[in-house]
Amino acid sequence: MNKLATTFLFMAALFISACSNDDEPQIPANAITVNLVNNDQQKTIGGSDVYINNANNFTTNECGIVDFGSKGGFNQNPNLTQIAQEVAVTPGNYYQIVLASDVKNIAGQRAYPINTNFYNVFVDSWIYNADNEISGAKIMYAECYPDKKELPEWDSAINVDLKPVTHEEYVESVAYSFANGVKIDSNYDISDFEGSELSRYMDIDIQDNTITFSSRSAFGASGKTEIIAFVRHESVFSRVRFIVKSAQ
């Protein structure tokens, strides 16, 4: 056999080996394997109400299910672009299960809270009965939490101090920016700490990942106020507490 042919066969073997390794599901250590029998509503995936019905579909009343096909994985963050309450069970496919009531619209997009669990799921194979008919499926699933380094921890306190400005409308102002790609929701709650009236004179402006606090008071409105806001990155969100203090 000539050298070129030997090299070709060697490279082909490497290619086949690499493809085989890529096709194998990467099962995490905390994954749980369970056999789900069709229409057994008492046997579900984790703490969800998801079971397999007689049509060989995952179905639920309280959750949302996403089908990633064969391109998913156990390290998949919440993805809520195509979420349903019933999807076909297909061996070799990955799925994701979230609690529907925890999905919120944050800054114009559906998102899942960073402090809430969900399930990544892999369908390993069908289960057959004595008549060789499909009676369920072998499922592997793992409980997961969102992984988003771009977002602060849930209920993080962010202290910001207003600074004097020379502006015909405002006497104090300060801006705070999150990482690129983070969006701040326009709905927020504001309240004063005891003895403060700062919120009465406060204007808040939100532009993408930056929030600006400005005070209109030239009459000594001192003290501090708290603004509770939601911030999102892709399909995950967190809640933050801004503690805004006047320089007066």
Describe this entry's structure for a reader.
This is DUF5036 family protein. With 248 residues, the protein is mainly beta. The chain folds into two domains: 3-144, no CATH class; 156-245, Immunoglobulin-like. Helices cover 8% and strands 46% of the residues. The protein contains one helix and 18 strands. The strands form four sheets. Strands 7, 8, 11, 14, 17 and 18 form a six-stranded mixed sheet that branches. A five-stranded antiparallel sheet has the order 1-10-9-6-4, with no helix packed on it. A four-stranded antiparallel sheet has the order 12-13-16-15, with no helix packed on it.
> What is the number of independent domains?
2
End-to-end separation = 88 Å
Low-confidence stretches: 1-21
Number of DSSP-assigned strands = 18
Largest sheet: 6 strands, mixed
**What Rg is obtained from the alpha carbons, in whole angstroms?**
26 Å
Question: What structural class do helix, strand and pairing data support?
Answer: mainly beta
Give the strand content. Answer: over 45%
Helix content: under 10%
Organism: Bacteroides gallinaceum
Protein name: DUF5036 family protein
Keywords: Signal
Pfam families: DUF5036
Short account of what is shown:
The protein is mainly β. 8% of the residues lie in helices and 46% in strands.
Q: Which labels suit this protein?
A:
elongated, 2 domains, five-stranded antiparallel sheet, DUF5036 family protein, 248 residues, six-stranded mixed sheet, 1 helix, signal, mainly beta, DUF5036, Immunoglobulin-like, 18 strands
Q: What is this structure's SSE topology?
A:
Layout: H1 3-23, E1 32-37, E2 51-52, E3 57-59, E4 63-69, E5 86-88, E6 94-99, E7 104-106, E8 109-113, E9 118-128, E10 134-144, E11 156-161, E12 163-164, E13 172-177, E14 182-192, E15 202-207, E16 210-215, E17 224-233, E18 236-245
Parallel strand pairs: 8-18, 11-18
Antiparallel strand pairs: 1-10, 2-3, 3-5, 4-6, 6-9, 7-8, 9-10, 12-13, 13-16, 14-17, 15-16, 17-18
